[in-house]
Each structure stands twice: as structure tokens, then as C-alpha cells.
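Collaboration report, partner site 2.

Our partner group contributed sequences for two proteins of shared interest, and the home lab folded both. The records are reproduced in the order in which they were received, starting with the first partner submission.
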Amino acid sequence: MADYFDDNPTYPEKTFKRRFRMSRNLFTRIVYDLYTRYPYFQQQYDATGLPGLSTHQKCTAAIRQLAYGITGDAWDDYVRMGESTARKCLNHFVEGIIQMYGKVYLRKPTYEDIQQLYAAHDDRHGFPGMLGSLDCMHWEWAMCPVAWQGQYHRGDKPHPSIILEAAASQDTWIWHAFFGCPGAMNDLNVLNHSPIFEDVYNGIAPDRTFQGAQEAARKDIERAFGILRKRWNIIKQPSRFMEIPTMRKVMYACIILHNMILENKNKVICVVPNDIPDPPNPQLTEEQRMK
């Protein structure tokens, strides 16, 4: 606690941002929300009255695993936590992030968002009616079962992987994420499985010089992928998770945290609402959609 969270911490804010990938006030907000909502993150006492791991210890272990992509036992000498407990902290942490913030920070654009995105992209790229740029990214799966490697391996990739399809705006805010397609698929196959265009109308825009503008606009999603991988090394390195649902939760949590950091830095095109109203006839809950 004295290193980072006291009134006069050992390490300054700059060091905190480098190691935790976010500002101290944003991390404190996440810690408080997890503490008030989930009993797992509340400090417990054993039968002898000795205190267990604190909320800050559990959240620090989880965020360091996401940021540095190392195994759970690498922090036992600092946060005094065993490997199995560190893995459990990570699982509870990413589930909590998705449940608490997914509805707002991985939302579909509202009407107000759409108007602001249209204006920003028309001004920057010359594309009227542009919401963002779309592309795919592969996350190498080191623990892919041998029997599955045929469908998760593609010729231009040296190892089995799972695909993330994402759409990002010029500020690198990720508006859409669809993770889970086998790595053997190409981008068009992934698009056919993706729900991104289920409720979007096709519009007609004025003629423009397309190729040069499209290449510039496509850099938005490439920058977003680069920032995402640089910030969260766990998705840059080969995944050591055995189950795809766990990888999916980690990926979505990293994207949500990425968007939260952008908002905290005031580098977003659209104002983040306090809450998003539920659709009048929802087909899937937010938690079901994340799965």
C-alpha cells in the first residue's frame, strides 16, 4: 500500500501509470466498484482472526497479469499471493470488469454518438457516414489441443490462433468486438459470422477518391490494435489459457479497460454516458452477448 496508495506514495504518478497502464484515480475507482459489488474482493479473515488479501492486492495481481502477460506465480514475492490465487483473482477481475462496465464502455453507438462520429470522420478522412474502420487481429493460442489445431491454424500464421474482429473510430475507441472465430478463417469468413451488421442500414454516400482515403482511415483500427497489444501484453504473447471462454473474457476486459483509459485521458470523440438504457425488445442480455 505504501508504494502506490498512501497519501505520500513511494512511486510517483508517472511510474504508477507505466506499471498499472492507467492513472491512480481510475484504478482506485475500479477497486472501489469491485469492493462494493463483489464479496470476493472484500478482505476476509481466517479462523484465527488474521486478515487475508486486501482488495488492492487482488486487483494489483490481476492488472499486472494483464499488463505484463506473465504467469500468476511471478508476483508471489511482491503481493504475497500463490499462483492459483492469482489466477482466481484474474478470473474474478475480468468478469467484474465486463459485468460492471461492458454495457457502457463496449456499447453500440447511440444516436448522439453516431452524429459525432460522422462529423469527426468526415472532417478527418473525408468519408461521410463513416462510423469507424474494421479489421481482424489474431491472438496466438499456445495451449490449443492437438485435435483442434487444424481449424485454428492458418498457412500464413506459424501457430494456432483465435481471431478478434473489432471496429474503432479515429480516437482508437473500440466500438465493436467479436472474439472467438478459429484462426483458420479469413477476414471475410469472420465477417459472415459477426453480428456487427445485423441492425445497421446500408447508406449511399457521394463519390469520393476511395483508395487513398480508405488506406488512411484503415490506420485507425491498426493503431487501436497496436495500442491494445502494447498496453496489455497478455494478448500480445501466446495465450496459456486452456479454455476459449476464459480467453474471450480476458480480451473483452482488456478492450473495456482500453476505452476507460481513453475516457480518463479525455481523448474520446463521444461523451461517455452514465448509463445505457436497455433496448425495448432485447434478444440477448449484455452478459450473454459477451459469451
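Second partner submission, folded after the first:
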Amino acid sequence: ESFTPGVYTDLVAVGIHHVVHQGNQAILKAGLPQLHAVVDRHPHLVVSHW
């Protein structure tokens, strides 16, 4: 499965390198302010605060 083009680029740009696949969603380790911009651009991402 692949995400919308640019998702991985955007995630790596804000320092997130580990994404857990779950269907068409991704559970991200949150905590970075820049993450909100990524989620805004890719609304299918689900942010989980661990």
C-alpha cells in the first residue's frame, strides 16, 4: 500500500521516520508542532499521542 504522494517526504521533513500502516491510515507518533501541517495536507493520516 502507498500513501498519497508526498506524505513520506513531508513526514521525514519534520523528523518522523517510523509510520505504522493500518489500512489507508497511518498512526504517527505525535508531539512535533510541524506535524499538524503535515496532517492538514494529508487528512487521511491519524495522529496518535503516545
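Feedback sent to the partner group on the second submission included the following. The two ends are 24 Å apart (CA to CA). Residues 9 and 39 are 13 Å apart (CA to CA).
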